[in-house]
Write a structure and sequence with these properties.
- The structure is a single chain.
- The chain has about 180 residues and is mainly alpha-helical.
- It has one domain (about 5-180): Arp2/3 complex 21 kDa subunit ARPC3 (Orthogonal Bundle).
- About 80% of the residues lie in helices and about 5% in strands.
- It is built from 7 helices and 2 strands; from the N terminus they run αββαααααα.
- It has helices spanning about 5-25, 40-50, 55-70, 80-100, 105-135, 140-170, 170-180; strands at about 30, 35-40.
- The protein has a two-stranded antiparallel ribbon.
- A hairpin with a 3-residue loop joins β1 and β2.
- The longest helix has about 30 residues, at about 105-135.
């Protein structure tokens, strides 16, 4: 297959998965209060990173994060770049761990999901803190952020298990996509 055709296929796949991630984030998610959201939006970004590597994952995460801020519930603000970091992390770290654990898919998936979800949780906590600091959002005080942490960590654990199971089940599909 020619290099142009391979590039077109990569861009097409990343575009479709990014669109799916955005749909999951905007329309197929459950909000619990203002700071907790349960969603499958990281899965397409993880798949992009696993299949095409960290740079495609980072770029896709950046695009999805930007569109999520533009089209999402809260809109664009001075802290939008901080909220975009979580989307970027899902794509980048999945590609990074894929390159490290290339031959050990299951171990790579487990470490990717656990490490990245912890990083994303830290990044989102930082974004909430910055909302309180820059925008002076009275909702995001230190007390509020700390009080929501146990619930966020519990949901992180549940989401991690779901993501790991799904990613292990679709391993053969990922292998087929990598061939093209």
């Amino acid at each position: 297959m020619s290099k142009n055709r391979q590039l077109i296929m990569k861009i097409s796949f990343c575009s479709i998965m990014s669109a799916l991630s955005l749909v999951f984030s905007l329309f197929v998610s459950i909000r619990i209060g203002t700071s907790i959201k349960i969603s499958l939006h990281p899965l397409p970004l993880i798949i992009i990173g696993i299949v095409f590597g960290k740079w495609y994952g980072l770029l896709s995460g950046t695009i999805v994060g930007l569109l999520d801020q533009l089209l999402g519930v809260y809109g664009v603000s001075a802290t939008s770049p901080f909220w975009m970091l979580a989307f970027m992390a899902w794509g980048f770290f999945s590609g990074l761990f894929k390159s490290i654990f290339n031959k050990k898919y299951v171990i790579g998936v487990i470490l990717t999901v656990v490490f990245t979800s912890v990083c994303v949780n830290v990044l989102n906590t930082f974004a909430m803190f910055m909302d309180g600091l820059i925008i002076k959002d009275s909702m995001f005080t230190i007390t509020y952020i700390v009080s929501k942490l146990p619930m966020r960590l519990l949901l992180l654990f549940i989401e991690d298990i779901i993501f790991i199971i799904i990613l292990i089940l679709i391993k053969n599909l990922v292998d087929i996509i990598k061939k093209y």
